[in-house]
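Pasting two entries for a bug report.
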Amino acid sequence: MAHSVARSARRADARQNAEKIVRAAIACLGRSPEASINDIAQEAGVGRVTLYGHFPSREALVEAALVRLLAEGDEVLEAIDLTGDPRDGLRALMESGWLLIAQAASVLQAAQAVLPPGRVQELHAKPEQRVHDLVCQGQAEGVFRADIPADLLTSVLHHILHGAAADVATGRLDTTDAPRFVAEMALAVCAVPTAKHHHAAKPR
């Protein structure tokens, strides 16, 4: 009985340490994508040996931090009502998605520096699928353009979000303007072209 209680206590301590380390990684990488293992261990209040006992490398820890942020962001996006007009849903997704990407931008930068591009893309698959499904819904209902594949529109929307985050980071875009701008750009990209635009696009 005593051994069982001790094992449970050790597992609880291990979970708490792992949680502290991930939270410390998010905080440190959020301040600087080059944050070191020493920085993160100090932030978490643990030693390097304890940290490496949970995460065998800086890469593994960076991935864990990104996975955590994406999971928390997905909970926010999951709560958005997408059952009405797809245009309203797209605006809400882009505005909320922008805030989440802005919060995770530095951690994402750290991940892109140490993880294979395919892995980063894989981790983004679920939120991108949500946008893709909404684009397909809007195309089916005739409120989004159907002359461009949904895959390509989704990719453009992804780049709008990350481009805005990069512009904010470099000071080219004000944080308070970004949610409205990314939403308006997304709606403009997906809008059904007018007859005039169709005519102008025809080859001579």
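Entry 2 (this is the one that rendered wrong in the viewer):
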Amino acid sequence: MSTSTKSPTSSQLGTYLGLSAVLIGMVVLFGNLSEYFFSADTFVAIANEIPALLVMAVGMTFVLIIAGIDLSVGSVLALSAAATANAILLWHWSVLPAAALGLLVGLACGAITGSIAVVWRLPSFIVSLGMLEAVRGGAYVATDSRTQYVGDAISGLAAPWVGGVSSAFFIAVALVVVGQLVLTKTVFGRYVVGIGTNEEAMRLAGINPSPIRIAVFAATGLLAGFAGLMQSARLEAADPNAGTGIELQVIAAVVIGGTSLMGGRGSVVNTFFGVLIIAVLEAGLAQVGVSDPSKRIITGCVIVVAVIIDTLRQRRAARAH
């Protein structure tokens, strides 16, 4: 079974150090290219930008480890936020029940994606692609294709807490810790890695992978719903276009963090580094004046390079065995 379920090995420590070196190198590079980058304001802004991305990346790490993929998380973010906004604005619910509704919507979307993929034995790529469109359409219907302004009803998540950094950031970091502990210290985490490594061996061992797979997708949907709350709190609004394309950033962050697209290997802590690398890259490119299309080209190239590195790592590991 993968070493990701054991105590950190020298290889894992090497990965941590490698990702840290890349992150520090990027900070130094952009600090030299822009006189405004290396400042407290920049780092606070990055910290306040990443909570939604980080929360979804935690769930996506588990999805990729079971050799699946979920392209619908951005749409689920938007629909969950829309459900919460409707509950507050139209039905006059208080904040906690409205937020719970948004989380339940995310959970349901993830459970539906996982159930269809598992029961019908369909590629999760295709199922989640269909859900991406269907759920996005639901967000437009729920909001009448207009941004719903909820004001400061749920702005507490985005309120400055320590040094101008929002509570959402600290909650997201706490979820990273919880996710890593679940992955490395629980039976569920071992089953997740085992399914991604060799699903047939898990079946022969008497373990049914189906409910575990569905649970992983459901949890990812729940986290996407929570990301929707974070996004709404920061914008004080529910935008039906929110999260468009963010699924690519989420997958990029997880892959950059070293989680294998082939399944069986991953780390939530490494995903955190991947999110930071993506965030610093985008902030740095913006400060040095790179256009949005050029930023997308560079980000796409980073994803391709990360996938190539992962493929080479897999081949090297296969030859070693």
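Dev reply: Rendering is fixed now. As a check, the viewer should reflect this: The first strand starts at residue 148 and ends at 149.
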